[in-house]
Amino acid sequence: MKKDIHPPYHQAKVSCACGNTFTVGSTKPEIHTEICSKCHPYYIGKDRTLDIAGRVERFKERAAKAAKKTKKKQ
Known about the structure:
Strand order of the largest sheet: 2-1-3
CATH topology: Rhinovirus 14, subunit 4
Helix content: 25-40%
Order of helices and strands: EEEHH
Oligomer: single chain
Shape: elongated
Radius of gyration: 21 Å
Strand content: 15-25%
Number of strands: 3
Distance between the termini: 71 Å
CATH class: Few Secondary Structures
CATH architecture: Irregular
């Protein structure tokens, strides 16, 4: 293999928004994530809504406005 062409390899500390931390091998020394295997609904076996940055609330507001418009037209 050629020398000095590969990026440095670190034991990266991964921090999730839920508070979980673990280490993995990566070219970055630190990784921040919003969802990990401890809080993702698929892995925990629970169907729950993860509201990141108010996306679910904004969707519900748009859906309510659209429903009002269709009722007024009828």
